[in-house]
């Protein structure tokens, strides 16, 4: 009886640790979004003639980077509730 309680609590704590480690990807996505928009601001300041085209590329980069952050959150939820 004692061993089953021990293993149940060990499994629960391992799930929480794994989910916490999986959310590190969200911080990476936040930094990536900052890099995308700082690159956009730098490029737009250098060449204002193609500002609209650069903005489309920045939004595409934002969407792809945000998708990686959402994937990290999804993995964390799968670890916790799967």
From TrEMBL:
Annotated compartments: Mitochondrion membrane
Keywords: CF(0), Hydrogen ion transport, Hydrolase, Ion transport, Lipid-binding, Membrane, Mitochondrion, Transmembrane, Transmembrane helix, Transport
Signal sequence segment: none
Pfam families membership: ATP-synt_C (PF00137)
GO BP: proton motive force-driven ATP synthesis
Coiled-coil region: none
GO function terms (MF aspect): hydrolase activity; lipid binding; proton transmembrane transporter activity
Protein topology in the membrane: Multi-pass membrane protein
Span of domain V-ATPase proteolipid subunit C-like: 17-79
Record-level GO cellular component terms: mitochondrial membrane; proton-transporting ATP synthase complex; proton-transporting two-sector ATPase complex, proton-transporting domain
Residues spanning the membrane: 16-37, 57-81
InterPro entries membership: ATP_synth_F0_csu, ATP_synth_F0_csu_sf, ATPase_proteolipid_c-like_dom, F/V-ATP_Csub_sf
Subunit structure: F-type ATPases have 2 components, CF(1) - the catalytic core - and CF(0) - the membrane proton channel. CF(1) has five subunits: alpha(3), beta(3), gamma(1), delta(1), epsilon(1). CF(0) has three main subunits: a, b and c.
Sequence similarity: Belongs to the ATPase C chain family.
Protein name according to UniProt: ATP synthase subunit 9, mitochondrial
Organism expressing this protein natively: Vermamoeba vermiformis
Organism taxonomic ancestry: Eukaryota, Amoebozoa, Tubulinea, Echinamoebida, Vermamoeba
Gene: atp9
């Amino acid at each position: 009886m004692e061993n089953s309680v021990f293993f149940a609590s060990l499994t629960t704590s391992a799930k929480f640790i794994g989910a916490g480690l999986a959310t590190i990807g969200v911080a990476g996505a936040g930094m990536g979004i900052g890099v995308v928009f700082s690159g956009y601001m730098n490029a737009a300041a250098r060449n204002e003639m193609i500002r609209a085209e650069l903005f489309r590329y920045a939004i595409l980069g934002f969407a792809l980077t945000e998708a990686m952050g959402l994937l990290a959150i999804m993995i964390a939820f799968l670890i916790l509730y799967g």
